[in-house]
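Worked example 4.2. Below are the chains of a multi-component assembly; read each line carefully before continuing.
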Amino acid sequence: MTIVRQPFFWIIAAIVAAFAAAPTIGNNIELRESLILAAVYISLASNINMILGYAGYVNFGSIVFFGLGGYICVWLMSSHAWPLAAALLAGGFSVSAVALVFGFGILRLRGVYFALSTIGVNGAVMAFVANFGPWGGSTGIYLSPALFQPLGGPAKALWVIYYLMIGVMGLSLYLSYFIKRSKFGVGLLAIGQNEDAAAVLGVPTPRYKAIVYSLSAFLPAIVGGLYFFKSAYIQPPDAFDLNLSTETIVVAMLGGQGTVVGPALGAFLYEELRGWLLTSPTFSHFQLVIAGVLLLAIVLFAPGGLMGLIYRLWPPLRKFLE
Amino acid sequence: MSTLLQVENLNKRFGGLRAVQALSFSLHEGSILGLIGPNGAGKSTVFNLINGVFAPDEGRIVLGGQDVTGEPPYRVARRGLARTHQIVQPFMNMTVLENCVVGACFGRENLALGRAREAAREAAVLVGLEDRLDTLASQLTIAGKKRLELARALAARPRLLLLDEVLAGLNPTEVERMIGIIRAIRARGVSILMIEHLMQAIMSLSDHIVVLNSGAKLAEGLPAEVANDPAVVEAYLGDPDLAAKLRAA
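Applying the procedure described above to all two chains together yields the following structure tokens:
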């Protein structure tokens, strides 16, 4: 339990507390809606960072976890009357299990081939869902407003969803922190730097890659469940939107892949920027253009992202901000 | 003395090239075995077969009484085999200590992170990198990277260490220092199989020498026997009597 004595453990706790407290001041609904989207991005970016930043595998199709988790949760609630918590967990565990099986297969591929295969997996799953009758095919699933009653009606349910999302965001940050501090994380970072050398040193590369792929699927699936429960409907193009996948990679790299706070910082800034652009009529959807330019700029000039710059400007921070 | 490594009738082809042909040899616990031969003789391929980078087409590799033929590198490493690469492959964005921690974590003893840090530090001290623990691997000189490569392998606390040209590219002072380090490693009971082009060094370090030529074993014996074997001299110099002529001249 030495990890509790690390300052960084408490930095994460403070971030989560700030998110939880901020919108309650003056019952600020607008801020809550902005922060819940930030929490979605932070959770997705932190999870993709475990495979992208630690193990060095570019997962372009990570959104498949979010979409599948959403579908499983929404379907269990609407067709089988499962309570929210059970449906969320069922989504998380089943998506993780599927990812483990897929992981052993597609993680034999490297570099560009792996990245392409993840897009393929997302596309295949989307095509399957769009033709899958029980999940409503291409029209998707609509949730009855009655499902919000157990949470105390729609207005209260939105607060419950908000706190659950903040909780998942906190878990995402802690998970990526614990992994980085563990022996498992040491093995992943070695794979990320030079996979062949890592294997020669004894890192069981196929198993480690499949496990991190599966772990990085668990919380995004729950985020998907919460997200689509909140919007009360789910359709294939929203659930498996590759744009969101790409944005997740951009924010992780913008903040600094391989660090714990970097993806969160990148996600937060990006979401605030996006929110601002969306409300401006001239620039709606302009965030995708900016995302493209940002990605180019990061790859060319700052491969370490924002955290890389911060570490360079103030090296002692390395010890406190993971 | 018991046999630690036994290689039996090893064969490996790459397309039409017979990289290794019917090679057999054994290495005794606690000894240093030198593997020499002209460029392209198949020495590095033999290393890659032993540690599982390639699976042999034929033959058997027995390490410490267990058949490890065709096992992936990470499993062979767990059984107590560590190696260095001819072209060093450090984790460039990790510090010296972090590099060694990877070796210690996943080596023979499968150490937990805390104990692995101790083993890593010990290994770094043994190769003389103790004042560079927090330096990024990418910032080391070539000699430094070679020592790091060795430290990382040692941190795994192996029973058998494969050294692929650790002396190549070093200046005479660095070579002296590296030879001292290799002797210190052997003194700790680690057996060594080494490839080296620097004849003087390998002749003085090895207990036993195997000479490869075109993938097959050309000669084997004590360093002095091998050095005077006309077939070996011919393989290296193209003329079996050249050495004698040079000596006479």
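Take a moment to check your reading of the output against the notes. Residues 81-158 of chain B form one domain. The first strand of chain B starts at residue 3 and ends at 14.
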